[in-house]
Design a protein that fits this description.
Strand content: over 45%
Organism: Massilia terrae
Pfam families: Gcw_chp
Helix content: under 10%
Mean pLDDT: 84
Radius of gyration: 18 Å
CATH superfamily: monomeric porin ompg
Signal peptide: 1-32
CATH architecture: Beta Barrel
Number of helices: 1
Protein name: TorF family putative porin
Strand order of the largest sheet: 1-4-5-6-7-8-9-10-11-12-13-14
CATH topology: Porin
Keywords: Signal
Number of domains: 1
């Protein structure tokens, strides 16, 4: 029997709409703010691994309170190996606080779920520091992609060229604790690009590379990405 890819697309779309509706429908609290973005991207690259080599539409929503608590979600279609297209859903929540120096810190938990290949779903805890133009976050997972304990250090920076255009840079280091079938123990991913802000839109172009200790089936050594995001 042939696979119904249209059903997978409809399921991904419905999941994204439910995610957005749930976040936008939360009860209002004083000084609370709900924001989001809809992104069209040429591909989906996460932590140096291509989760979709085809164009994708992605949705992100987040709800922040004046007390520092926040929660949000992200939805995107993905392709894991030769499996049919499916939906990836990420929900997260935590607490953020800005210090008098301008430095801010945050900590929280997240859950990444794959609606078809549920064995790859995983949870993480994270903590980080940020300034206006740089951030660092450490993620810890007890069962990353179903492969065991893992840590990921996420570093990001940007430099404004003018009031609309800025340089962006990313570096990530993944380390697996113990056996991790089909992957190297350590992996470094790098990305550099340009981001153009136009009112409610952000246009981005970037190139990324992957440095790995051993072969990884779904990784690419170099990946060009283009995206357009509408913020609401």
């Amino acid at each position: 029997m042939s696979h119904d890819y249209r059903r997978d697309f409809r399921a991904s779309t419905v999941a994204a709409l439910l995610l957005a509706g749930g976040a936008l429908g939360w009860p209002a609290v004083a000084h609370a703010q709900t924001s989001g973005s809809l992104t069209l991207a040429s591909a989906y690259d996460a932590r140096g691994v291509v989760l979709s080599s085809r164009p994708v539409a992605q949705l992100r929503v987040e709800h922040d309170t004046d007390s520092g608590w926040y929660a949000g979600g992200f939805a995107s279609p993905v392709m894991l190996g030769r499996a049919p297209t499916q939906a990836e859903l990420i929900v997260y929540g935590g607490f953020a606080h800005q210090l008098a120096s301008g430095l801010s810190w945050d900590a929280g938990v997240s859950r990444t779920s794959f609606l078809r290949d549920t064995r790859y779903s995983y949870s993480e805890i994270y903590a980080g520091l940020a300034t206006d133009n740089a951030s660092a976050r450490l993620f810890l997972s007890p069962d990353y992609f179903g492969g065991g304990r893992s840590a990921y250090l996420d570093l990001n920076a940007s430099h404004p060229l003018n009031d609309k255009l800025r340089l962006t840079a990313h570096a990530g280091l993944k380390h697996a604790f113990g056996a991790y079938p089909g992957d190297g123990r350590d992996r470094v991913d790098l990305r550099a690009g340009l981001a153009l802000g136009l009112d409610r839109w952000t246009l981005q172009a970037s190139v990324g590379s992957l440095q790995k200790s051993r072969g990884y089936e779904y990784a690419r050594a170099r990946q060009f990405l283009f995206s357009a995001s509408m913020h609401f």
